[in-house]
Each structure stands twice: as C-alpha cells, then as structure tokens.
TrEMBL record:
GO MF annotations, alphabetized: hydrolase activity
Keyword hit for Plastid: no
Record key words, sorted: Hydrolase
Record-linked Gene3D superfamilies: Acetyl-CoA hydrolase/transferase C-terminal domain
Origin: domain of life: Bacteria
Protein name according to UniProt: Acetyl-CoA hydrolase
Signal peptide limits: none
Domain Acetyl-CoA hydrolase/transferase C-terminal per the UniProt entry, residue ranges: 15-52
Pfam families, per database record: AcetylCoA_hyd_C (PF13336)
C-alpha cells in the first residue's frame, strides 16, 4: 500500500518522477488532514492507534430525512 498521496512531478527532461512528502518532523501546530477512507492506522512517536473501528462506531445507524 502506498503512503498517502505521493506527489508526481516532472523533471527537467519532462519525465514523471515521484517525490516523497514524508517528513521526519512537523513544525509545532502543523495541520495534517486526510480523508477518512484513507486512514486505518495512525502512527506517532507515542504508539499506534487503529482508528478505522473508531470511525465506524461514530457513523450514525440512521439517516435523517
């Protein structure tokens, strides 16, 4: 499975190359947003969280008309 949204850019010769957006650290207060369907696990320096099941439990069992 690829990491979320790797960027494709063109080099000087016009060929597509992939550029990693993975960073070792983020600045304090940085915002990271992803679509709910793209995330199963969140990994930080504090551990791993399986968030898929949490998000399913928050989906209402009914639809408002």
């Amino acid at each position: 499975m690829p990491f979320i949204q790797q960027a494709n850019v063109k080099n000087d010769e016009g060929k597509k190359v992939r550029v990693s957006k993975i960073m070792p650290t983020l600045k304090l207060g940085s915002i990271v947003s992803l679509q709910r369907n793209d995330v199963d696990y969140v990994v930080t320096e504090y551990g791993v969280a399986w968030v898929f099941i949490i998000m399913i439990k928050r989906i209402p069992l009914f639809k408002e008309l």
